[in-house]
């Protein structure tokens, strides 16, 4: 979602919309569990990966100003267009503006500690507030995420980094550089590529 800097005191919602952080996950007020509660286990707690295929798994909260809560949870397995899994994103600013979207993974590529994943939104809901951006219905859009698993403080990017809002669909496995930092949480990237000459089969 957009990076929104809050004016002090916190009661005043920001009116300026800057290029923003991943929408990511806590479904406040919708009855769904937050990423910390219901997301996949990560890091040392992650399910042991025994199959030869790429993997991106985990959840995290972006490093933002107080009151700006953006979370992402993703569980993706499989190579390129054969990838499967789910993603869940939420972004809330203050007590009124915010929401979530979730969907199914349709592409995953890895390179060392970096993973790029895309998925198609199957459900979304955002509540408007004065002075805040209107997100609208994202259902049917393909959005992308990039994760750098650096072992200490992972980094995250997303396909709407330049646009500010996730309005446009992208191609499979397309996203931005991982320019945002996690405040808490962890992602695990397992790199795998098929033998040369077999990737397109």
Describe the structure.
The chain is mainly β. Helix content is 2%, strand content 39%. It has 1 helix and 8 strands. It has one helix at 35-38, and strands spanning 55-62, 68-77, 84-93, 97-111, 114-127, 142-148, 155-158, 180-190. An 8-stranded antiparallel β-barrel has the order 1-2-3-4-5-6-7-8. A hairpin with a 6-residue loop joins strand 6 (142-148) and strand 7.
List its traits.
single chain; 201 residues; mainly beta; 1 helix; globular
Determine the number of helices (DSSP H or I, runs of at least 4 residues): 1
Q: Proportion of β residues?
A: 35-45%
Helix content: under 10%
Class by alpha and beta content: mainly beta
Average residue-wise pLDDT: 80
Q: What is the CA–CA distance across the termini?
A: 36 Å
User: Strand tally, please?
Assistant: 8
- Spans of 5+ residues with little confidence (pLDDT < 50)? 4-47
Order of helices and strands: HEEEEEEEE
Radius of gyration: 16 Å
Name the strands of the widest sheet in spatial order.
Answer: 1-2-3-4-5-6-7-8
Shape: globular
Question: What does the main sheet amount to?
Answer: 8 strands, antiparallel, barrel
Sum this structure up briefly.
With 201 residues, the protein is mainly beta. It has one helix and eight strands. The chain is globular, with a radius of gyration of 16 Å.
What's the structural blueprint in terms of helices and strands?
Elements: H1 35-38, E1 55-62, E2 68-77, E3 84-93, E4 97-111, E5 114-127, E6 142-148, E7 155-158, E8 180-190
Antiparallel strand pairs: 1-2, 1-8, 2-3, 3-4, 4-5, 5-6, 6-7, 7-8
């Amino acid at each position: 979602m957009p990076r929104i800097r809050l004016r002090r005191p916190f009661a005043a919602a920001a009116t300026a919309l800057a290029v923003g952080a991943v929408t990511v996950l806590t479904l406040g007020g919708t009855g769904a569990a937050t990423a910390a509660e219901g997301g996949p286990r990560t890091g040392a707690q992650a399910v042991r990966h025994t199959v030869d295929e790429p993997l991106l798994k985990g959840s995290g909260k972006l490093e933002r100003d107080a009151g700006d809560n953006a979370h992402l949870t993703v569980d993706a397995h499989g190579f390129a267009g054969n990838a499967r899994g789910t993603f869940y994103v939420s972004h809330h600013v203050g007590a009124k503006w915010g929401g979530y979207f979730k969907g199914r993974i349709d592409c995953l590529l890895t390179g060392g500690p970096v993973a790029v994943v895309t998925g198609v939104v199957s459900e979304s809901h955002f509540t408007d507030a004065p002075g805040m951006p209107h997100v609208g219905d994202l259902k049917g859009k393909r959005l992308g995420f990039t994760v750098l698993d650096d072992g200490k403080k992972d980094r995250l990017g997303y396909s709407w980094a330049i646009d500010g809002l996730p309005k446009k669909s992208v191609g499979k496995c397309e996203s931005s550089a991982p320019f945002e930092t996690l405040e808490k949480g962890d992602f695990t990237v397992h790199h795998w590529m098929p033998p040369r000459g077999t990737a397109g089969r």
